[in-house]
Design goal:
The complex is a heterodimer. By secondary structure, chain A is mainly β. Helices cover 0% and strands 49% of the residues of chain A. The model of chain A has no long low-confidence stretch (mean pLDDT 92). Chain B has no helices and 11 strands. The mean pLDDT of chain B is 93. By secondary structure, chain B is mostly beta strands. Classes of the chains: A mainly beta, B mainly beta. Chains A and B meet through β5 and β10 of A and β4 and β5 of B.
């Protein structure tokens, strides 16, 4: 079955450590996205990539980094510079350019807790 | 910039209808979306509506779009306990990215 796999599901980190969240898709989608979800704030876009070896900052990119070396993979690194990293992180993908409704497919999410 | 607003909570009795409302700012959005998020999970697309439509119905779901007021609503008929979730409204911006609302937490009680 095609889909998006995020790992790990739960992650605990000490302050000052970098962590990397994995996102893999087998949908042959061109574009991939990382969102952060906090209670009562909806989804905020961190980074997105429309093509391999290219990515752009979203609304809250500070303290995060990404890479897009393969079409299927879009890992997110939460660095020690991110001041409030505890959150639920969602990866998504879609076909680009979109013809029609531009529907995003989401992974199941990764919950990061900083101790 | 674009903004999408929703109320945070809605509580309904099982069997009643639920209406979740959303307002958006980008009048050029070609599509508007409703996504559902169950606890601890990702978002699933429920339905979407093209901007030249006023209404779309899909089984128990009815979407109403008022472009003049930039208002979108989702009606769930015969609400069940399995409908308890967070519902997100989203619009598409001029760079083809989705802008999500804060989400409405729907609680269904017996």
């Amino acid at each position: 079955d095609g889909g998006i796999t995020q790992s790990p599901k739960y992650l605990f980190r000490k302050e000052g450590q970098n962590v990397t969240l994995s996102c893999e898709q087998n949908l042959n989608h061109d574009a991939m996205y990382w969102y952060r979800q906090d209670p009562g704030q909806g989804l905020r876009l961190i980074y997105y990539s429309q093509i391999v070896n290219d990515f752009q900052k979203g609304d809250i990119a500070e303290g995060y980094s990404v890479s897009r070396e393969k079409k299927e993979s879009f890992p997110l690194t939460v660095t020690s510079a991110q001041k409030n990293p505890t959150a639920f992180y969602l990866c998504a993908s879609n076909l680009r350019p979109s013809s029609g409704a531009n529907v995003l497919t989401f992974g199941a999410g990764s919950r990061l807790t900083v101790l | 910039g674009e903004d999408v607003e929703q109320s945070l909570f809605l509580s309904v009795r099982e069997g009643d209808s639920s209406v979740i409302n959303c307002t958006y700012t980008d009048s050029s959005s070609t599509y508007l979306y409703w996504y559902k998020q169950e606890p601890g999970a990702g978002l699933q697309l429920l339905t979407y509506i093209f901007s030249n439509m006023d209404m779309k119905q899909d089984q128990r779901l009815t979407v109403l779009l008022n472009k003049k007021d930039k208002h979108l609503s989702l009606r769930i008929a015969d609400t069940q306990t399995g409908d308890s979730a967070i519902y997100f409204c989203a619009e598409i911006d001029n760079t083809d990215k989705l802008i999500f609302g804060t989400g409405t937490r729907l609680q269904v009680f017996p």
